[in-house]
Amino acid sequence: MGSSAVRSVDPFGQGTAFAPLFGLGSNRLLPISCRAFTAFPGTSPTFACCKPMNHLLLLPATIVLMSCGDYVRVGPVKIPTDQQTPSGKPMTSFYSMTVNDIHGKPFPMEQLKGKKVMVVNTASECGFTPQYKQLQELYTTYKDKGLVIVGFPSNDFGGQEPGTEQQIEQFCQLNFGVTFPMMEKVSTKGDAKSPVYQWLTEQAKNGKMDSEVKWNFQKYLIDENGNLVTMLASATDPLSDVVINWVEGRK
What is the pTM of this model? Predict the structure, then answer.
């Protein structure tokens, strides 16, 4: 007799399988060659197989396959995949972070929702330190139009921010009249990189790009929805056209 197939019923209710039977005739059932497949970790096992067998028990409307003492079910298999960030969508929200301000008090980034944000790493003894004046002018002009500048003092480059938070605050106020929010000192690189700068510099977190803080007064622009827009080099004047056009919504 030619080959035929008998439908088997899945006892777990996950699906059905078809076991090919060869040489069905008289009271003999010829051996079937099967192969076992390993299930993926954390998922339902894939369908059953066995090594060549000499006997199968044929039950009405049901075929049960047993091999090596294992009873394997047939069912749908879900293959695990690595979680991926949709293009342009950050895995970590900018607004989920909380930092400490220059007085040591919590400063939730959530309060910046709906505002354009410029994040700047600052230093008091740098050749770019005079940019404090332009930063303050930019803030004064546009703070009522939805712009916030957030300064993060850092001693990462040339040891040019050696002072305490109190000394930094006094320096900024006395020399430049700084009123925009200043945070406590952070590291912008290396193993001690702060969570904010991890988000700013790592595409896996910000969904936009990888970058590296190369010197003091490097600037990061974040839109009203908490998305990283771009990075501007230290030499970029805070009152340059590229900054003003972004703040005013012009391309």
Answer: 0.66
